[in-house]
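In the current project phase, the collection of sequences with tokenised folds has grown. A representative record is quoted in full directly below:
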Amino acid sequence: MLTAVIWGVSFVSQRVGMEFIKPNTFNGIRTMIGVLILIPFIFVRDKAGKSRPSDRKKLIIGSIVCGALLCAAGTLQTWGMVYTTSGKSGFITAMYMIFVPIIGLFAGKKIRAVTVLGVALAVAGMYMLSIGGTDFVINKGDIITLACAFIFAFHIMAIDRFSSEVDCVKLACLQFFVCGTINIILMFLFEHPDWELVRSCAVPILYSGVMSCGVAYTLQIVGQQYAEPTTASIILSLESVFAALAGWAVLHEMLTLGELFGCILMFAAIIIVQLPTKKRKKNCRMTL
């Protein structure tokens, strides 16, 4: 939930940043800031003996997989927004809530009935929040963003796969390094950044780098040790709710009655999927 709050507020900083620089430049710099934030934390934890013993091969493979998926999803999302509205992009991106349980089925995982209900409520709430009463017309940007949602679903599944086997903070740090490296390569190949403009949006980049990457993505990996992938995807999708609230608080954007109802539906979905069952998934624990 805290991850969703930070990501939601980060929507404001990212929107401001895009007024100055291009996507790969913004994403490359902010993910590398995330790396720099986590390196001292990793050093301190290693010295204190609190790091989880990790197989180096699994850590490297997990970092490459998660980092590449994160880079691809973020690039597609930004590219898609060139051709579609931010509201439609937010709703379509949240379709990873649907893709995660579907992918899980192919991996042999069962879906609880309350999870199906929770996904349905969350999708309905996301529709009310992001699109409201506008016409839903599929265009090029929608297709690109749908591909982004599909990749985000695989990213959530990959985090679920590796987070229980390696040290979570090291996985987060190396994931950012892989993602940032790819973005920086693309930045120099296609965007030719203006460093004066980069300095002009230093505050949005720092917030996104420190909070969205360094803190929130790390919390996502830690949190997914204790939550099923489908449940995690629904909780993480609340970033759109908090983005709307941040827009209201910071940018003075008003929420309509329909958008408020969408927020209520999404919070109801979170409560439903968290209802206890007779069998609970056993998860590994780590000490921060």
Q: What stands out?
A: Confidence is low (pLDDT under 50) at residues 280-288. The chain has one domain: 2-273.
